[in-house]
Amino acid sequence: MGKKHVFNAGPCLLPQEAIDNTIEALKDFKGTGVSLISISHRTKGWDEVMDECRALWKELLGIPEGYEVVFLGGGASLEFLYVAMNYLEHKAGYLDTGVWAKKALKEAKGLGDAFAVASSADKNYSYIPKGYEIPRDLDYFHITTNNTIYGTEIREDIDCPVPLIADMSSDILTRRVDVSKYTLIYGGAQKNAGPAGVAFAIIKKDGLGKVSRYLPSMLDYRNHIDKLSMYNTPPVFSIFVMNETLKWLKGIGGIDAIHDIDVKKAEALYAEIDRNTLFTGTAAREDRSIMNVCFVMAPGREDLQDEFLKFSVERDIVGIKGHRSVGGFRASLYNACTLEDVNALIAVMQEFEKLHA
Fold it and tell me: Among this protein's residues, is 46 annotated catalytic?
């Protein structure tokens, strides 16, 4: 069996170093003689993991004073509700760029006046809306920076006249972010930051406490800040792997280094899609994601889709089938995916083209 080249959209490919270190901790956590998945979160040494993980987030992203990082269960899907519960008092605006933005908006609508300021639904979310005006009387404006299903991405921090909240589930830790422009950045870890089972939130502390509604204890960000992400039993395993992933990222040079690598991977694959006579990209060129590269068979060659999927699997390409709602193909180039993996996919695409020229 050859090396598998993994392009899963999530849970993601993780760095081998993080996997290996986790395997050792599964055998024995910090010399305790107890497995990582059997320890109590009150075990001596666990506080060190939590402290290190928070510190690495702050260091890697240059998070300024006045912000705190918390780790939560429930994924980004639960944080859709956290957002509305903690910030929606009068009305909120959302940028509708795909399924996950739509789901976030749905949760807010259940609690108050929330609406889409702009949408790209008219062209099946193949572009990022532009030229819209953000109302200045909003409690917050919500964006989803990377749209995994459609392969579009907001790759620069926008200027916003109201508190800005961003779901960065699938492109966090891939580029420099001016955190000071945001009231909240949140997401699931399972794209670039670790395994499934834990979500992160980067919270501007003075943005909290401004709603009049009753906040259930578990949905009040302040409780998780005050208890250092241990208001209830934290997802110990997932946080440990996250910490190892962040240590790996720091070790290879941090955000600037990984951004350069990620851009090279995406540019190489998009260049092949644009050149290859059998494939065509689906996202507007100016909005193409460097994380999720979405493409389909070229017009008139749609009958080759299933054959190409089978052909790629036989050549150790894993996880390129597109989301069930859009079909086609999707190669997710998260941080642990290498240029070698991308070149392997390109080679398979070129081999397939020669068979069907």
Answer: no
Looking at residue 1, what is its pLDDT? 59
Q: What is the pLDDT of residues 307-345, one digit of tens each?
A: 999 999 999 999 999 988 788 999 999 999 999 999 999
Can you point out the beta strands (E) in 1-112? 5-6, 67-72, 91-96
Catalytic-residue membership of 100 = yes
Count of residues in the chain = 357
pTM listed for this prediction: 0.97
Catalytic residue (one of 96, 139, 167, 171): 167
- Per CATH, is 255-355 categorized as 3.20.20.70? no
Pick the catalytic residue from 46, 57, 191, 265.
191
d(CA 274, CA 268): 10
Architecture of the 16-251 domain: 3-Layer(aba) Sandwich (3.40)
Active site residue 265: no
The residues of the chain that CATH labels 3.40.640.10 are 16-251
Catalytic residue among 46, 57, 100, 248: 100
